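Reader question, answered in our methods column.
A reader sent in the components of a multi-part assembly and asked whether the whole thing could be modeled at once rather than chain by chain. We filled in our standard form and ran it. Here is what they sent:
COMPLEX SIZE: two components
ENTRIES:
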Amino acid sequence: GENVEQHPSTLSVQEGDSAVIKCTYSDSASNYFPWYKQELGKRPQLIIDIRSNVGEKKDQRIAVTLNKTAKHFSLHITETQPEDSAVYFCAARYSSASKIIFGSGTRLSIRP
Amino acid sequence: KAGVTQTPRYLIKTRGQQVTLSCSPISGHRSVSWYQQTPGQGLQFLFEYFSETQRNKGNFPGRFSGRQFSNSRSEMNVSTLELGDSALYLCASSLGANQDGYTFGSGTRLTVV
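And here is the structure of the entire assembly that came back:
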């Protein structure tokens, strides 16, 4: 069925270090993979997305990679800062329908 | 331009009652999706509307329903409320069906007592 698995559920890294969050999806026909950041008490906000015809995309300290064969995609945050502390959600759009399915979220904490 | 607007922001209801939540998408956006967010379950898909038609429905009981109006505003209704319906209900809009780039509203926090 339609499913997006996300790991880890919690992640704590030292300020300045890198953080990696990994997701897998079940439908090989999925074609769009967004990542959302949700700060405490706020709405989820799109931070980066990637389409199935691209293997990697970068935006400053954030990058997303996609392995279509393995049905994996990952979020990489480099040089982490305190304001990166939030819950991050990966998601996938199933081409058989237009709905976007979300992973269960990763709570990222940046230690000073 | 204005973002996605959800009303009300907070609601407290009693078990057995019903509730209606409203979502006004970004101007020009014709697709609205609804999600239920709970601490243990993350973001669970409820339904998606485009041009007043429900395109997709998640795995929720029939007590959860919705509709979309000709101006793209959407409402969702939950009847016979249960304690487990307490959650943050988020709507997101996009330009059209299969369009990327969801923008979320701030949500309606429903508490059922």
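What stands out: Chain B has a mean pLDDT of 93. The longest strand of chain B covers residues 42-50.
Send us your own complexes using the same form.
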